[in-house]
Fold each of these.
Amino acid sequence: MKVSRTVLKTSLYWKLYRLSLTRCDYQDLDFPKEDESNKEKELSENDDSLSDFDEDSNEIALDTFTDIPKELAVDSEWEDIYGSTLTSSDYPNSEVNGKDFLANQESAAETLQDHLRWQLELTPFNDLDRACAFTIIDAINSDGYLNASLEEIAQSLGGNRRVSANEIKTVLRRIQQFDPLGVGARNLSECLLLQLEYLPPNTPWLKEAKFLVRKYLRLLGTHDYAQLTKRMTLNRDELREVINLIQSLNPRPGASYESSQTTTYVIADVFVKKPGGRWKVELNPEILPKLRINTHYANLMSHISNRDEYNSLKNHLTEARWFIKSLKSRQETLLKVAQCVVRRQTGFLEYGEEAMKPLVLHDIANELEMHESTVSRVTTQKYLHTPRGIFELKYFFSSHVSTSNGGEFSTTAIRAMIKKLIAVENTAKPLSDSQIADFLSDRGIQVARRTVAKYREAMVIPPSNERKRLA
């Protein structure tokens, strides 16, 4: 076997050597045609050369091939065909600038369907079951739940053979064993039960958790703990242990594979600092465009004698200067608006959201003697970097609510107060919207119950019955 491998290597080497001598068309070369006798002669020479090899060694007796050159002649270089090699200057974010140009390259995120299909390829299925499995996986949404019914999946397969719902259900059971646990469930109860089935049998309160999920999940969703303790014959402490086990499960097993949610990084346009006890506002120099007039084209005007060419170049030069001036004016306007906002919202910077003052675009426009639409454009998608975080300039504008003593209160401050009240409430008896409205009324802030509900829903805070917890 060793001798045969050596002969093949030697024969391949000579063939490559012949092909590398020239790049001309093979038909243009005056090579004598080899007949069968020449081929047999060449094979016999190869057989005679076997005596120069040691059968117990992998080394080739190179002394036999004294006429083989060390380097093969070629008529072109790599750069002639593929161009010059890439240098670090070809990549603005290369290692020369202290960055790796590959670091910012985004790779395609794996979706839930990709993960399930990969497991499907590793699972033995016949052709029919595999087709059913692919159809089921396509019907699973981003949360990991099966959207289509078994009958709909059977109808979508079509074909000559009619697939029954029981066959689809058998394939579904196998897919429900895939990772992540709970995938392929048709409802929340089935999703939680699939995850509970894979817990060790000696898990505390496992039996009670399965019973609760199977029978009384709706009562758990409404936080009706009195009915749960009565129907499951458990005391409050035991029920708490069962609920803690259920809450350790994942109700959205496919959420971690959502590819639509991408991280968006915000670069602040304005920095707000407090050096020496005074608030200072300055533009972010990293985002300012660095533009200038090309001196070569500007100097051409003194050497052009043709009037049409002179006027054309003059017009382009004027437009370029106006463009640079407009950018500079826009940055100056942004700085003025940011300084005015910081002066009016110093309380927020010092004490937080509860100290936010009412502010509308008209107030800034009057102070800076600008049009209201100009202020609106400047503050849209422009961000302010403060010691309390990064906020869009629009965040500092809010309407007002009148107080009982004739003053005004910002709606942003009211939202902050509602959020603070709910954060410190008794979870066994959470505050209702009416109670929150009464508390604000005692502080002179007149808001209706429905207004409190609107603010609470805007902050994605559930109502009191859903915030209730066991004491």
Note: The first strand starts at residue 270 and ends at 273.
Amino acid sequence: MARLLSLIVCSLFSVTAFSIPLNNIEAMLPAGSQLALSVFNTNSGEQIVGRDDDILLPPASTQKVVTALAASLYLPQDFAFETKVLQSGKDIVFKFDGDPTLKRKDLQLLVSALKAKGIRQIRGDVWLDGEIFTGYERAVGWPWDILGVCYSAPSSAITLERNCVQGSIYSEKSKRQTRVFVPEHQPIEISTNALALTKDQQKDQHCDLELHYDSNNHYQLSGCLAHRTSPLPLKFAVQNPQKYMSDVLASELKKAAISVKGKIRIGAPSGQRSFIAMHKSAPRDALLNTMLKRSDNLIADNILKTLGHRYFDQAGSFSNGAAAIKAILKQQANIDLDTAVMVDGSGLSRNNRMTAAQLMDVVQYVYTHPQIGLLAMLPVSGVDGTLKYRSSVRHAPLKNKLTAKTGSLYGSYNLAGILRNDKGQDILVVQLVTNYHIPASDDRPSNVASPITQFERELYQALLTSSLTTR
């Protein structure tokens, strides 16, 4: 009897010692944070956790999995963006269809094709035709304060070098004024009246570096920047993609000794067109791989608009693109996103709303249909993409165990994907953390991880060891 009692006590102690309540892990988040969590065991098909998974929250970049699934189901595998050069009477037409990967060297090859056709003078106008897209180039809900940086570059049919330009700002100790540098080949203007200060001066004056810009691709830096021994790299979103392309194309035509009698115009001329040359982007899956691994906003939004164009047979926009994605997923995957709020393909808009359960429907479809190839495109913890350096999962025992899309906005930290646990079982998980804000009074030592890092580390280790409980 004593031996039996001892075994029962040991058994109970073992269960208690290796059970980690979800409430204890959630308590690691700052007060006021909100967690929605959905977890499924693929072996049993049972839901392990369903914490507030029916509440609409900002999905951030986990929404790219939704965009990628719709693209995989609707666009042919050999789909590629095409940029064409055509002739219409005396005019030359550059027809763009939203290639987010078009580079200047690609444009140079198209210009070279004109010369190879014996064209030394364009007797009419040069047209930049981007009429395949319409409407806003920035979705409703994109915050004004990030529109000047490259991860929120405008989603336009006429796109070059990711609608992103680079420069640098210098703040030397010996000088009060900062100075800027921009490579000559970029047709933009940048000026600065920002002051170079010590870190203490900058803190005392509550003075930050600010960026102002206009629709002519003119940028102005103001405010303050702490002294640096090396220049601060800058990446600006092109504010007027059409003007930028026009200026670059004018330069490339001049380099190629091709004169233009008319003007470079935006739009599409009437009349018949004859083909001269074409550049094709990488095919669909290569584009989606980049979009998911690197969390590329421009690819996601231009694919969304392309879906809207193709599905509704009209110029693509944020509005019809979002409607197309919902229709495609309902018709081809039986995934109902009617109550979700989708205004872009990237998840950058603060207006997007989706439940953890809806995202789980998408993750489950991706998992149960490996032939579409999206699983291999998701970042892997500690290995590649946006999970390569994510502090919570980059090291053992979680390294190489989690395959998931990340998503971050101000106050939001999300994940959606698959964890392989210690039993060799695949666990599907969607994590939406919102209203996450560390109080100004936080006095953690510098060597102590942030609350979100501690939360994620404990959550995924508990899932790894099958020790998570909801009691």
Note: Confidence is low (pLDDT under 50) at residues 1-17.
